[in-house]
Amino acid sequence: MGFFLTIALLVVVLGIAWRYLGSYMADVFEGRVRYLAWAERPFYRLLATSPEQEQTWKRYAGSTIIFSALFLGFGYLLLRIQGSLPLNPQHMGAVTPALSLNTITSFVTNTNWQNYGGETTMSYFSQIGVLTVQQFVSAAVGISVAITLVRGFSRRNSPTIGNFWVDITRCLLYILLPIAFVAGIILVGEGAVMTLAGPATIRDAINGVTQTIPRGPAGFMGAIMQLGTNGGGFFNVDLAHPLENPTALTNVLYICLTLSIPFALTYTFGKMVGSIRHGAALLAAMVIIFGVWVGITSYSEHTNNPAVVAAGVHSTVGNTEGKEVRFGDTSSALFNVSMTQTSDGAINSAGDSYTPMGGFGLLTGMMLGEVTPGGTGSGLYTILVYAIIAVFIGGLMIGRTPEYLGKKIQAREVKLAGLAALVMPITVLVLTAVAVSLHAGRAGPLNAGPHGFSEILYALTSQGNNNGSAFAGLSGNTAFYNVVGAIDMLLGRFAIMIPALALAGALAAKQIVPAGLGTFRTDNGMFIGLTIGVIIIIGGLTFFPAVSLGPVVEQLSHGKFF
Amino acid sequence: MVTHIRRSAISILVMTAVFGFVYMLAGTGVSQLIFPHQANGSITSSGSTLIGQDWTATNCPGHPKGSCVFHGRPDDTGPYAAVVCAPGAKNCTPSSGGDNPLVASRVSGESGASNLGPRSKVLLDNTKQLIAYWKALGVNDPTPDLVTTSGSGLDPDISPADAMVQIPMVSSATGIPAPKLQALIKVHTYRAQWGFLGSDYINVLQLNEALVRLK
Description:
The complex is a heterodimer.
Chain A: H1 2-29, H2 37-47, H3 57-80, H4 97-108, H5 118-121, H6 124-154, H7 164-190, E1 200-204, E2 209-213, H8 218-227, H9 248-273, H10 276-301, H11 306-310, H12 329-341, H13 356-367, H14 378-398, E3 403-404, E4 407-408, H15 411-437, H16 439-442, H17 450-464, H18 479-508, H19 525-556
Antiparallel strand pairs in A: 1-2, 3-4
Helix pairs in contact in A: 1-9, 3-4, 3-6, 3-18, 4-18, 6-7, 6-14, 6-18, 7-8, 7-9, 8-9, 9-10, 9-12, 10-12, 10-13, 10-19, 12-13, 13-17, 13-19, 14-15, 14-19, 15-17, 15-18, 15-19, 17-18, 17-19
Chain B: H1 2-34, H2 36-39, E1 43-44, E2 47-48, H3 121-136, H4 144-147, E3 157-158, H5 160-164, H6 167-174, H7 178-187, E4 189-190, E5 201-203, H8 204-214
Antiparallel strand pairs in B: 1-2, 3-5, 4-5
C-alpha cells in the first residue's frame, strides 16, 4: 500500500514539475528569464560573446568538444596532483593515472561511473573542485544540446542553432543552481552530512566499540548529482549510505530530483515547437516504458532471494540482501529503476544482489538507450532520434515523405538518426565481447556463473550509456577496465551528441511545410506506440542474445548455485 | 579554434570557482548554521545514529558475548567482515573485522555491500553460517534482515520483526521479562515516514541505549 502511495506522490510532484519547470526551462532558453542578468552580462563580456551572436551547428559542436576536452584535461591534472592540494584532511595521495582518466571521463560525460571508493580515494578538494563542478557542467551541456535539437524543429530557414556559451550559462544559473541549493538544505535537514571537518572517531561505552565516522560535504553534492542525473556520490556505496541518504523522504526527494528535468524537458520541447501535444506524446512513451519496468523490478525484488531461501530462512518480506531496512524492498527497486532509466546511475541498494529478474530490469533499462526519460538533455535528444526513426518507418508504411513537426525527414536526417541510434549498441556489444575474450576482462567479476557475465555486460552497458550504476562486485579499478571504460563512455556520449547537433543544424535550415490531410500524425496514440516499438526493437532485439546469457539463464537455473 | 580555447579556459576557471567552491562552501556554511547536528553526522556521545555498530562483542557477564543487547544487520558480524564463530564450532578462526571492512574492494573503512548474486554459493554458505550463529545465541528463527547484509554495510536500523525475534536472547541474558522488552521495542519503532514512505524501522543504537537505562 505504501508503495502505491509513494508512486502517487511521485506522479503528483513530477506532474507539477512537468508543467511548470518545463515551461520555465523554455522561458530560460528563449531568453525571457532575466533576474540574474547582472551576473550573466559580465561573464559574456569576459568571453567576448553575447546572446545575439549565434553559432552554426559546426561551431556549436566545436565549442562543446573543445570545452569538454579541456575540462577533461584540467580535471585529470587536479586528480593527479591531489596530494599537493589543500582541503585534504585525510592526506589522500595522488589518484593513479588509469583511475584518474576513467574518473574524469566518467564525470565529464555525465556518467559518474565510480571505479574509486569516494571516502577512501578522493580529497575534499577533488570532490568539490573536480567532481561536483562536472555534475553541474556535464548536465548543462546535455540540456543545451537537447535544446538545439528542439530549435532545429522550431526554427525555419535558420543557419544557426543558438550560442553554446549562453545556453550552458543560463542552464547553470537559472535551472541547476537554485534547485540544487534548495534541495541541498532539505537533504541536510533530514540528516545528510555536510562538513569539511574530516572524519570523527567515537567510542561507545555500551559495547566497547571504537568507530570512525566518515564525513564530508555529501548533502549538497547529492543534490546536484541527482538533479543533473549524474549519480556519483560522495561515498563508495553512493546513496545507500545513511549519511547521504538518511531517510525514506530523502530517498523520494532524490528520485524526484532525478526524474524532474528529463520528464519536464518534453514540456519544454512542446512549448518551444508550439505544440504541447507533441511533448505529451513523447512523455507518454517514456511513462509507459518506465511504468512497466518499475512493475517488473519491484515485483521481482518483493520475491525471496533464492540463496537465502535455500539456506533455510522462512521469509515473507522480499529480497533483503544488499538493501537498507529504512527503504524496504519495493522502494529500493523503484529508486534503482529510476536511476537506470535516466542516465543517473546512483544506487540505494546493491544491484548485484537483486534477484535475476530484478537485475534484468536494471540492465535492460539502460539498454533501451536511456530515453525513458533518460539523462538531463541526453534523454530528450535521444528520444527525438528514435522519434525520427519512428516517423521514417511510419512514412515507409504509408508511402509518403516522412515529416515531423512540418520538417521533411530526408536521407541525411535518417542517416544521422540511424548513426546516433546504433553507436551505443555496437560499442557496448563489441567491448563486452573484447572483455570476455581477454584474461584481464575475465579477472573482473566477483560472482561465478552467468552472474559473472552479467557483471561485465552491466559495466560496459552502464558506461556506454553514460549511466554509471554498477553490479559492484566487478573489480573495475584495473588498467584494463579503466581504459576500456573511458573509451566506452566517450563514444557513448559524443558519438551520439555530435550526430544530434548535426541533426539540429540540418533541421533548422529546413522550411516548415504545413500539415496536410495525408500527413502522418505524430501526436496521437499510433505514434506513441510506434515510438515505443522502435525503442524496444532497437534496445531489446540487439541486446537479446547477450541478456539471454546473463540474467535469463540465471533465472532459469532453478536450484543451482554457482 | 583559438576563440574556442580562450572561451573554454575562462569558463573552466570561473565555473570551477562558482559551481564547485562557492556552491559547496556556501552550502556548508548554511548547513552548519541551520542544522549543525545533522550536518556534522548526527553524532551523539555513543556514536552516530546513522551508522550501524558491531554489537557482537558486547560483554555480558555470565552469558555469551553480545547476548544482552539487540543486534543490527550482520554487516559487521557476518562472514563478510569479522569472523564470529558459533560456540563449539570446528575449523573456525575468529577475527575482528573492524567497524566497517568491505569484502568487495578489500579496503577497510570504506562503505560497501557484499555484492553477492542471488545464486551465489558464497552467499548460500554465508547465510547458513549466520543462521548457525543466531541459533547458538538462542535466536531460533532469524529473520531475513538478520542473515543478509545491507546496501551500505552500515545500516543502523532493523525492522520491528528483527527486534522481536531477539527478545528470548536478550531476555535470558538480562533477566528483563519479555513483555517489558516488547513494550520497549514498540516505543522505539519509527513508523514509515509520512505514514507511507519506506518501511517501519528501529534504530539499534537508540534501542540499546534505552535497554541499558532499563537494566
